[in-house]
């Protein structure tokens, strides 16, 4: 399992209150926000109590215990290379609201396409497309951040919004339970398919990640080459060799 597979980071134990520990965790998980929905000192006790209740049917004897609805499938958007970027994992209690930040992949993009999927496949297009929308953005170098928010209310209605903060541009889509959602049988089938194709999908993901890493590297080389302080130190032969290598790449 790699860091990108982690959906939430839950703090457990008194040591997790130390600011430096929080900062190290935040940095280690590439800026992911740490979950603060539960007291770190009580997290283990809560988990043990819930597990004990489930194993002994003890929850039937707790009249005030609320059984919440959960998301039957993961919800997310297509990322670069047809990869499913999960925003709300399967079996998340609702209502829920989560926000992820994505960046543009091309210079001077005029819009970003947001395609919303539900499913467990790593390949986005193999999941169920719920809807899509486009948000206009200002022309800028690649790397412009776009905040994408998924929220589900108590009735299971999904709202997905995207916002580019510098311009204030924002757009959203609302998806109801009657709008392209799957039956219980279809959900079970998709979960089983995801398990069956897991190894194949992981190979696909690794190829996409390698291709994206190469693209990032070439982009940074071109960016450096445009810097006069660097290019002035290169001979014409060096420049030809570098350009030739980038074309082959």
From TrEMBL:
Matching entries from Gene3D superfamilies are given as:
1.20.1270.10, 3.30.420.40, Substrate Binding Domain Of DNAk, Chain A, domain 1
Q: Which SUPFAM superfamilies match?
A: Actin-like ATPase domain, Heat shock protein 70kD (HSP70), C-terminal subdomain, Heat shock protein 70kD (HSP70), peptide-binding domain
Matching InterPro entries: ATPase_NBD, Heat_shock_70_CS, HSP70_C_sf, HSP70_peptide-bd_sf, Hsp_70_fam
Give the top-rank taxon of the lineage listed in the UniProt record for this protein: Eukaryota
> Can you name one GO molecular function term for this protein?
ATP binding
The protein's UniProt keywords, in alphabetical order, are: ATP-binding, Nucleotide-binding
Which family does the record assign? Belongs to the heat shock protein 70 family.
Name of the protein described by the UniProt record: Heat-shock protein
């Amino acid at each position: 399992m790699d860091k990108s597979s982690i959906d939430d980071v839950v703090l457990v134990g008194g040591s997790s209150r130390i600011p430096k520990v929080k900062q190290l965790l935040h940095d280690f998980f590439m800026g992911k926000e740490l979950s603060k929905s539960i007291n770190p000192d009580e997290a283990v006790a809560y988990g043990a109590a819930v597990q004990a209740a489930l194993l002994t049917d003890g929850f039937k004897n707790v009249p005030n215990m609320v059984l919440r609805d959960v998301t039957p499938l993961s919800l997310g958007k297509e990322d670069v290379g047809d990869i499913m970027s999960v925003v709300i994992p399967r079996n998340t209690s609702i209502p829920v609201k989560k926000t992820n930040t994505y960046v543009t992949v091309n210079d001077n993009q005029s819009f970003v396409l947001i395609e919303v999927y539900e499913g467990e496949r790593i390949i986005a297009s193999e999941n169920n497309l719920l809807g899509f929308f486009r948000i206009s953005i200002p022309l800028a170098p690649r790397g412009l951040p776009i905040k994408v928010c998924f929220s589900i209310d108590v009735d299971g209605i999904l709202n997905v919004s995207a916002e580019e903060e510098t311009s204030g541009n924002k757009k959203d889509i609302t998806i109801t339970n009657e709008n392209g959602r799957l039956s219980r049988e279809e959900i079970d089938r998709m979960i089983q398919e995801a398990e069956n194709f897991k190894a194949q999908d992981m190979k696909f993901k690794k190829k996409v990640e390698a291709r994206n890493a190469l693209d990032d590297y070439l982009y940074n080389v071109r960016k450096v080459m445009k810097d006069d302080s660097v290019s002035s130190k290169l001979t014409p032969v060096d420049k030809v060799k570098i350009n030739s290598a980038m074309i082959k790449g």
